[in-house]
Amino acid sequence: MLLTADDLQAIGLTLRLAGIVTLILLIIGTPIAWWLARTHHWLKGPIGAVVALPLVLPPSVLGFYLLLAMGPHGFIGQFTQMLNIGLLPFTFWGLVIASVFYSLPFMVQPLQTAFETIGERPLEVAATLRASPLDAFFTVVVPLALPGFLTAMILTFAHTVGEFGVVLMIGGNLPEETRVVSVQIYDHVEAMEYADAHRLSAVMLLFSFMVLLVLYAWRPNNKKVAAI
Amino acid sequence: MRFLFAVLFVFSTAAQAETIQVAVAANFTAPMNRIIENFTRATGHTVKTAFGATGKFYAQIKNGAPFDILLAADNETPAKLEAEELTQAGSRFTYAIGTLVLWSADATFITDGAEVLNRNQFNKLAIANPKTAPYGAAALQVMKQLQVEQLLAPKLVQGESITQAYQFISSGNAELGFIALSQVFKEGKVANGSAWIVPAELHNPIRQDAVILKHGKDNAAAMALMEYLQSESARAIIREYGYQF
Predict the structure, then answer these.
(1) What are the pLDDT digits (tens) for B63-78?
(2) Where are the alpha helices (DSSP H) in A130-193?
(3) Where residue B6 falls among pLDDT bands split at 50, 70, 90?
(4) Residues of B with CB below 8 A from A187's CB?
(5) I want to staple B126 with a disulfide (CB 3.0 to 4.6 A). Which of A204, B66, B177, B207 is the partner?
(6) Is beta strand B19-25 parallel, antiparallel or unpaired with respect to B206-212?
(7) Residue A228 reports pLDDT greater than 70
(8) Where does the ABC transmembrane type-1 domain lie (chain A) (predicted)?
């Protein structure tokens, strides 16, 4: 076997993390994107900016403040202690929550664009056919925005797989809990185990390329749907 | 006219005063800053520093990073660089021997030394990654010596360096942890929280070696700094941060 047992474990953990984060963000990112796409409220600008913050903030900043916020003196930490679930740093679910923050724009922004492209017209038509707003969303918007959903999910998944700084700051390097692939590669490099680092990096490279290939191969389709 | 004098002055001093780049182990940050201040005042040479993990510096140096000197956190990395002929032969020496400390941000947490480990009344104990950080490896040896390794294994969290281990502890996410004494030592005592200074016989000495790299070969300023590090005034500072010789 080319990869060590630890490497495989890290890959499994990374895929689990990215899968769960994508699912959670699909659920909370969709209403945010929908609201941002349709509202004229004065909060649209500020909330859109907050959603985009992780694109600009260095992961070290985000990770450090998450570490403080999730700690015993931070507001998230006090909340989780009140609920008797202890502290989140150094746990898998701590990583999930951090990644949800970190990958939020990668879900919301493609969805928002997709929703904006659909416009008012299909919804007005659906309303004249007596479809309830929720009904219209699932029968009209979702199919029309499907390429947008796929783009958003692929980007969120891929971005979470590629996450490093935040995990390093709050992870604690625990096997099967927080030692994801990016951290494992970093460890190999630091320990001067370059051969191991090369192998695992090659896996990452191949994976990333495949993901982006799928994404870009979809693009023309995406445009066609948008044009309709 | 004044400008011309200023320019002339800069160029005339530049003849003797040089600028060197030094890669410094993170644990040596505080003493190094003070040593450089004195060194620059005494010699006129400018020292630019990069603080970080020794393993990362190794990778960078191997790939042509323009460092003139490496102050490592261990003695293996400089020896390895020497074997690979990336250093100035014969320049390697031990500039400090590190001291390990068990530290908590809570001033009442560590009152009876190692007993706190046996009592085991905490959720997380932070160490630096033992695979890559000498202070992390020493922490593991200590726990083995005290026969609490098995007991505490489920509670260990690892920082990528002692800097990060310190962050985990100071933010309260880990109640205590093993770090370098230099990180919490000021003016001859542990500045805050509570601590147990680990007796040196519980682990292999953390020898921190310095070496002149190929990039700094025969550089007068680099040699001057290496000499200065062994001077009594530099050693007094190094000792103040809890290092031995």
Answers:
(1) 888 999 999 999 999 9
(2) 133-136, 142-144, 146-161, 165-171, 181-190
(3) low
(4) 129, 131-132, 160
(5) B177
(6) unpaired
(7) no
(8) 11-215
Query: Is residue B160 within 8 Å of B131, Cβ to Cβ?
Result: no
Are A68 and B129 in contact (CB < 8 Å)?
Answer: no
The answer on pLDDT for B3 being more than 80 is: no
Taking a C-beta distance cutoff of 8 angstroms, is the pair A125, A144 a contact?
no
A5-38+45-227: what CATH class? mainly alpha
Given a contact cutoff of 8 angstroms between Cβ atoms, the answer to whether B100 and A161 are in contact is: no
Dihedrals φ, ψ of B56, to 5°?
-70, -45
Say yes or no: B167 contacts chain A, CB-CB below 8 A.
yes
The helix/strand/coil state of A205 is helix
> Under a CB-based contact definition with an 8 Å cutoff, are residues B96 and B244 in contact?
yes
Query: At B7, is the pLDDT very low, low, confident or very high (cuts 50, 70, 90)?
Result: low
Question: Does the reported pTM lie above 0.90?
Answer: no
Report strand pairing: B93-98 vs B69-71. Answer: unpaired
- Does residue A21 contact residue A199 with C-beta atoms inside 8 Å? no
In 3D, which of A187, A209, A164, A190 has the Cα closest to residue A4? A187
The secondary structure of residue A225, as a DSSP letter, is H
Q: Hey, are the CB atoms on B129 and A73 less than 8 Å from each other?
A: no
* pLDDT tens string A100-149: 999 999 999 999 999 999 988 888 888 888 888 888 889 889 999 999 99
Residue A22's contacts (CB-CB under 8 Å, 6 or more residues apart) are A107, A153, A156, A157, A160
Partners of B23 in beta bridges: B50, B70
pLDDT of residue B12: 47
Which residue of chain B is at minimal alpha-carbon distance from A74? B171
Helix, strand, or coil here: A146? Answer: helix
A87: chain B residues, CB-CB within 8 Å: 123, 173
**pLDDT in the model for residue B2:** 59
Closest CA to B33 of B75, B71, B68, B87: B71
Contact B173, B86 (CB under 8 A): no
Average pLDDT over chain B reads 90
**pLDDT, tens digit, for every residue of A187-221?**
888 888 889 999 999 999 998 898 888 878 866 55
Residue B14, pLDDT score: 45
- 194-223 of B, contacting A, C-beta below 8 A: none
Please tell me the distance in Å from B91's CA to the nearest CA on chain A. Answer: 23
